[in-house]
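Ticket 4471: requesting a sanity check on a complex prediction with acetoacetyl-coenzyme A. Repro inputs:
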Amino acid sequence: MSIQKVGVAGCGLMGSGIAEVAARAELDVVVREVDESSVKAGRGRIEKSLGRAVKKEKISAEERDEILGRIRFTTELEELADRDLVIEAVVEDLEIKNQLFQRLDELCGAETIFASNTSSLTITDMAAAVNRPDRVVGLHFFNPVPVMKLVEVVRTIATSDETFDRAFRFAREVGKEPIAARDNSGFVVNLLLVPYMLDAIRQLERGVASMTDMDKAMVLGCGYPMGPFTLCDFVGNDTTLRIAEIMFDEYREERYAPPPLLKRLVAMGRFGRKSGKGFYDYSGDEPVPLPV
Ligand code: CAA
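Returned structure tokens:
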């Protein structure tokens, strides 16, 4: 049985992208945010992304309107009750995710699959908090969701084969290339990517080279689409710090320990692109490196 009705809880950077790709795949989507201003911001993100697709002539204005018409926005959790699949993309905080899933556990039908887009928490910790651990799975998308092809589909020791298969097929149906990952913190990509990003910051602290030269080095020397500091600003330094804290807590390995400079940037509100400043200043036409 394929997934037709999708619920997305949280419409930030990731949730908005997930809602968009699901609606583009002609699925019926309900997006839930906590208040009207978050709904407005989330809707704005989707409109902006679809606007970009219209401008690049990938879709027509008519198609954009149809896609938007397939997404219903709400502040009521009850509106997710009839969904085949609910994907949470709320803040990276286990308690908040578990409270959400526990309320959904009471509201949704027994068949509804719960998925988390967490980057670093374990799916098992969420599955253990609800009465349907066999129907809990990880669906980890990448930023920007409409562009990045990968989805990590994560199974716990309790996930049923049917749940895993349906989630895997869903990822394909929304145009992504799924891979199967075991439920360890960081799955595959962040297990490898996060130490790389943190290491770049550590090398910057040691004065190995300038930030811009290190960014240039990885783009021109390795063909990466963006250098590590541009990537940190893109992902969000607050998000990377949170992920690093969770992974360090899990593995107690130095390579996941957040470097002091990352903490200082976050303390100063330099979250990256989303706050206008991070390693770079994004207020002008081109990013300008800031003092670190
Ligand atoms: N939304 C929708 N479409 C977007 C977009 C967005 N936010 N950003 C870029 N695009 C589209 C553009 O429309 C363009 O499409 P076409 O090629 O069809 O015209 C395409 O992406 C390329 O965009 P640009 O030419 O503007 O810029 P670019 O070539 O520099 O690509 C990028 C931008 C796709 C973001 C590229 O720089 C890239 O791949 N960066 C690395 C991203 C990455 O590593 N993501 C993973 C982050 S880690 C993560 O997400 C996991 C986690 O848990 C932390």
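Notes from triage: The pocket of acetoacetyl-coenzyme A is lined by residues 49, 52, 56, 119, 142-144, 146-148, 189-190, 225-226, 231, 235 (CB under 6 Å). Leaving this open until the requester confirms.
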